[in-house]
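EI: anyone free to look at a 156-residue chain?
SC: sure, send it
EI:
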Amino acid sequence: MRPQPDRINPLWHFASIFTVAVALNYVWEIAQSPLYAGIHSWENIWKHCFVASLGDGIILWIIHAVGRIAFGRWNWFIDPGFKGYGVMLGSGLIVALAIEWIAMHLLQRWEYSAGMPIIPGTNIGLVPILQMLILPPAIFYIAGMWIKRRQMQAHR
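SC: here you go
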């Protein structure tokens, strides 16, 4: 008999997603840090990028919640199929565009360096948008593998 993934505590889903999201986004944030103005020392870069990766972890929770609502199950991302990837990409794009626009235009939280490619007509950087298109499928895949492994170990 195959174990059912829904029997894993939803808190384990949140912890798995957040842990993987923070780790992968931290690497991305460090890599894209030269595309932002005003961060002059490595100490500031490490701290700023870690805080940003915590926020990215919350964004992944938001994407997970959208999928939970759309599919009616906590484990929708384990075998997402075409629609699941659509949720990841669509909600990742919407959230990333909203955050970048609000942070840049309303709150003026950060500025781009001259090296940041800009999406035409938006004054929004392309790299942070790509981040929320590329990383969520990888994050959900890795978190799903952890959950599957934990599930199999629990049923031994």
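EI: The beta strands are 36-37, 111-112, 118-119, 124-125.
SC: 👍
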